[in-house]
Amino acid sequence: MSKVKDFMKKKDIEISLKRYGIDALGAMAQGLFCSLLIGTIINTIGTQFNIGFLTTPVATVAGVDYTVGGIATAMSGPAMATAIGYALNCPPLVLFSMIAVGFSANALGGAGGPLAVLFVAIIAAEFGKAVSKETKIDILVTPFVTIAVGIFFSWLIAPPLGKAAMSLGNLIMWATELQPFLMGILVAVLVGMALTLPISSAAICAALGLTGLAGGAAVAGCCAQMVGFAVISFKENGWGGIVSQGIGTSMLQMGNIVKNPKIWIAPTLASVVTGPVATCIFRLEMNGAPVSSGMGTCGLVGQIGVYSGWVSDIAAGSKMAITAMDWIGLIAVSFVLPAILSLLFNAFLKKMGWVKEGDMKL
Fold first, then answer.
1. How many helical (H) and strand (E) elements, i.e. helices and strands, does the chain have?
2. Pairing label, strands 59-61, 64-66
3. 66 forms bridges with which residues in the sheet?
4. Is position 357 within any domain?
5. Which end of the chain is more exposed for a tag (fewer CB within 10 A), N or C?
6. Four-CA torsion 310, 283, 198, 258, nearest 10 degrees
7. What's the pTM value of the predicted model, to 2 decimals?
8. Would you place residue 33 in the very low, low, confident or very high pLDDT band (cuts 50, 70, 90)?
9. Distance between CA atoms of residues 192 and 203, nearest Å
10. Number of structural domains, the chain?
């Protein structure tokens, strides 16, 4: 047993929740951002501003035309797997082999491809690391083992994982349509808290394919955390804190939350309100890329995702036009309500002595 542990330590193979549930999951979200999400944004910009280079196909593969954004979107599987491999400290030959692994897992995983990529990429990466530099023909053995293991597990587990993720996502979206008030609260709170925790809310939303009304609730929850922490910590962190948390990430407060968990109450209560406001009053839907549902105001990706969904719905004929109420709802849920509610809740917490000045200093 000690020999196995020594070997795994030498190969940097660490079977832990942090390594797989935080590091790998967070890296997967970055891979999604650099492929699927940025591709969607490029397509939206090209369509809205009539930029020919961005709307005209630049490549045709197997009879399918791809625009610039389309190419980026098509590379989401390889991008996710390579990002995961990077997070797991894969040697170069393993890391480069993850491109093929990601493509196969994403393709066979169908609508639940991101979840399949997460599991398959982790397995393939660890097998690849185990054999890396163990033979004199490493340049042949390592890529062969990594790709073979990756494609085998893609064939074996990607379809059921994809179906399971899609089913769970559909269940959440169906429940939100059926019970928009209760599910609006539940989705907003859970996804918002996931955004602040050192895990990836974006990757979770992508893995579950969370769109529609549930996606809108997720956006509301994430915005409540980011904008909420940004405004209630303004005295401590100033405008730099507004930018780093409001457009960056509320995860920056995680250290302070560990010291005083009560500082988390105000933004979370704000999400309890904004979630059902999004689902019941404004019927805010995220019909863009699912990963956008878990981004909140980070780079305004959540808002861009909602907007790109409006554009797609209009093009598909399911929406007539973008109305003033659409914009009012998006702005209110994303910025106005999170700021006002968080300030009110935090003022009450300060009066109770639960939160003190300096508790949220970054």
1. 19, 2
2. antiparallel
3. 59
4. no
5. N
6. 150
7. 0.80
8. confident
9. 13
10. 2
